[in-house]
Amino acid sequence: MTMDVDVDNLQRELKSWGRYQILQLLYIFITYIPVVSTVFSVIFIGYVPPHKCAELSRPLHEYGLGIPAGNTCDVIIHYDECELTISSNHSNNTWTPITASCLEGYSYETTKDYSFASEWDLVCDKQGLGGLATTLIMVGQGLGATIFTTLSDRYGRKTILMFTFLTLGAVMTSSSFVPNLLVFNILRILTGCLKQGLGLSMFAMCIEMVPLEGRGAIGAMAGLYWAFAIVCFAGYAYLLRNFSWRTVQLACAALAFHCVFAHWITDESLRWLIANNKKKQAIKVVKRIAKMNKIDPHKALSLINRDGVSPSSLKEHPVFQTETEMTPVEKIPLGRQGDIELSLSKQRSSVGKDNKQPLLQEIPELAPLSSQQETEIMNSHAQTALSRSKKTEDSKPKKYTIIDIFKHKLLLRNSLITWYTWFINALTYYGLYLSSVSLSTDRYLNFLINGALEIPACLATWLLFNRIGRKKSSILFHTLAGVSLILSVVMKLPNDKAGIADIFSILFNFLGKFAITASWTVMSLYTPEIYPTNLRNGGLGAASAAARLGGMLSPYADVLARRAFWAPGIIFGIGSLLVSLGMLMLPETNGRELPQTLDELLSWYKGETDPKLRSDKTAKEDKLKGNDTKHDAGQSGASAMRTNMEPQSQTVEVDQNLPRA
């Protein structure tokens, strides 16, 4: 029998924000730091230091350049980053200069093992292979979101957290000893996959730890955790700035050493345990929470151990079934009360075999009723069931798939705008991080400032999107990002020897980073609100897939910046401004109830776009609210009890495709 427990009330009895919850959230914050390191460590271990062609160590004629032996004293060799030039030392010589690739490899200003880019010479024509490390992380994240969300629902949040955490630590450690780039890239895919599984499990545990009214705070807290984790990792990376990349990678793996203690520190999600009928484990967790929060556990335990009939078992009884829910034997024509009494007697005897009392006597409202009264209630319920049977069938929720998005022009248009927005957000967000090394200041300081900017961005988002709306907030932040990033490039164009223009360029770059972070936070909330209930996860999943694509392309922003410094800023800026224009066509969702069906959504869209419908929108909403408050006076006591005791869902809908974490 399914456990009938109101988990929100249970969590309130245990204190929503007690000592237990605070300590659990603090530990999860510590876990965020190794999660951040898996994505952003490539900025430091994949850094391309200043370099040039290594000096030639053999006579020129041995390189097959067509230079005869004995002429080494008459040539000048100029070493550039990616090529060398051999020219004659005599001004009257007609010898054409020879340009060749770096024949002896490369010479770096740092040690050879300072980064994997310098160790494996991922520069010049191989520079794109360095960006592949981040691309493969994003590929792994997509796989992890697909695999571990299902496993987490089946085997539990803590089980998946422990598995991914332990395995991630092992994979990160192994990455420090890889012999070549191929093995390193394979481990990067595994790292991304495990990182996503760990991140999703942590977020699910956090959001299921508190009742409904606390989930908004958990969402804001997750964004702040991410920002603080980046700031902490920036300081950690700075302390390791003089070590080889293998040492830095090993130090990042050490951040996850506490995973061996996570089994004793964390608990399985109480909501998941109750939803999966894990009563003994749920009682154990309740006792531990009560002990740490210093409260009496008996009242909370009574909510789990209470006797009686659960809604799921109650509605299986014929007394509370509509005609469409009865078997053919139980469908009794009206007026045949003797047959109804006979059927009721059979049901009583079948229930009485497994229970100490008949089912009706377990319900206080029905226990005193006589056989004749029971018959009258059954007859009344049967009449009500007949009148509502057709309505019940029609009100059954329709299942939608992602294909339905492409069948409706308005929904498809809005979806394409939303998906493009997520693509630009991810491309710009990660691109600004990964190309921060090309700015004129220290890369550690750039990374620190970029991370710190996420804190005010999260706060600004939560201050604005409920006041001015999701749509206006998104337009505001995307416009600010686009203008700032374009100005950042414009400031670099003049030849400013004093460096004032460079300073303003960096400031505008940071302002753009602030704005794109805030815009992505807004879109994470706004996107699920523009889809009906049975399409919400599909639409959000497609948006997340677009973000993954942007994340895969983002590493090449740094490669592009080395060839054309202005290109990434212009691409990011124009892309953000185009988002602002597209957002003008989307509806505002602030203050609206989420649409349940596709028909509701399309009617809402038409009301937003059609001036005639928009003028009557308020009147229609008032009329709908009036209809919702009407009550059927003829409904019998038995049918009313059945309606009020429908089982509540014990699971929480969690964003399975978190964009950043």
Structural class: mainly alpha
Q: What share of the residues lie within helices?
A: 55-70%
Residue-averaged pLDDT: 76
Shape: globular
- The end-to-end distance, rounded to whole angstroms, is 37 Å
How many runs of DSSP E, i.e. beta strands? 5
Q: Give the helix tally.
A: 28
- The fraction of residues in strands falls at under 5%
Strand order of the largest sheet: 2-3-4
Low-confidence stretches: 307-338, 340-345, 348-367, 389-395, 610-657
Q: Radius of gyration, Cα only, in angstroms?
A: 32 Å
What's the story with the biggest beta sheet? 3 strands, antiparallel
Question: Would you give an account of this structure?
Answer:
By secondary structure, this protein is mostly helical. It contains 28 helices and 5 strands. A hairpin with a 3-residue loop joins β2 (75-79) and β3. The longest helix has 30 residues, at 500-529. The radius of gyration is 32 Å and the shape is globular. Mean pLDDT is 76; it is low at 307-338, 340-345, 348-367, 389-395 and 610-657.
In brief:
The protein has helices spanning 7-13, 19-40, 42-45, 116-119, 127-155, 157-174, 181-207, 215-239, 245-254, 262-265, 270-275, 279-293, 298-305, 311-314, 337-352, 371-394, 409-434, 443-452, 454-464, 470-490, 500-529, 533-553, 556-563, 567-583, 598-609, 611-615, 617-628, 637-644; strands at 51-53, 75-79, 83-88, 98-101, 106-108.
